[in-house]
Amino acid sequence: MNFVVIDVETANPSLTSICQIGLAPFRDGVPGPPKKWLVNPQDYFDPINVSIHGIDEDKVRDAPKWPEVYAAVVPFLAGNIVASHTVFDRAALTQACGNWHLSTCECLWLDTARVVRRAWPQFSQSGYGLANVAATFGIKYRPHNAAEDARCAGEILLLAVGHTGLSVEHWLIRSDME
Predict the structure, then answer these.
(1) Other Cβ atoms closer than 10 A to 73
(2) pLDDT tens, position by position, for the chain (178 residues)?
(3) What CA–CA distance (Å, rounded) separates 143 from 122?
(4) Cα–Cα distance for residue pair 123/4, rounded to 1 Å
């Protein structure tokens, strides 16, 4: 059971404004060390976004821009199952790449929020946000830190696999059918 979970934080409402990206690789169902990069989005920071994740212009002033960070991220994603909690992270990655005229790498995307909604009836209509699901299952993490969010979503995916008996690959197929 190998997959990578991705999470991003944005500087403002624009999905192209990624200011932090985190990855959590899982090999044979075991979490590996998470990775995290600050990104200089070359865009403004909305006070609302800063209040959520605590990243501002000063923290990313000397950080690399998206093309450099994406080059470091691609080897983790290419050809792998890549999960994210909602489609927000996938959309942000796609739009950031489009903004910089970069090709997105080939990978198989899985929405862990969709998995949660299908795996546990109490989350089918609401309450499937990462913080609520983590609290329900006693998963401790620091929200709105990209690496921590990615690790947490990966642990939730492992719980869903254990609870349902469906593999990550089966969840990919089931998600594509919906």
Answers:
(1) 21
(2) 899 999 999 999 999 999 999 999 999 989 999 999 999 999 999 999 999 999 999 999 999 999 999 999 999 999 999 999 999 999 999 999 999 999 999 999 999 999 999 999 999 999 999 999 999 999 998 899 999 999 999 999 999 999 999 999 999 988 765 5
(3) 22
(4) 23
Give the global pTM: 0.94
Task: Using alpha carbons only, give the angle 141, 118, 23 rounded to the nearest 5 degrees.
Answer: 35
The dihedrals phi and psi of 25, each to the nearest 5 degrees, come to: -85, 140
Helix (H, G, I), strand (E, B) or coil at 71: helix
Q: For 3-177, give the CATH class.
A: alpha beta
Across-strand partners of 81?
108
Sorted by sequence, the CB contacts under 8 Å of residue 77 that are 6+ apart come out as 4, 6, 23, 105, 107
Q: What is the DSSP string of 75-126?
A: HHHTTSEEEESSSHHHHHHHHHHHHTT-PPPP-EEEEHHHHHHHH-GGGSSS
Q: Which residues, at least 6 apart from 175, have a Cβ–Cβ distance to it below 8 Å?
A: 110, 111, 114, 115
What are the residues whose beta carbons fall under 8 Å from the beta carbon of 173, sequence distance 6 or more? none
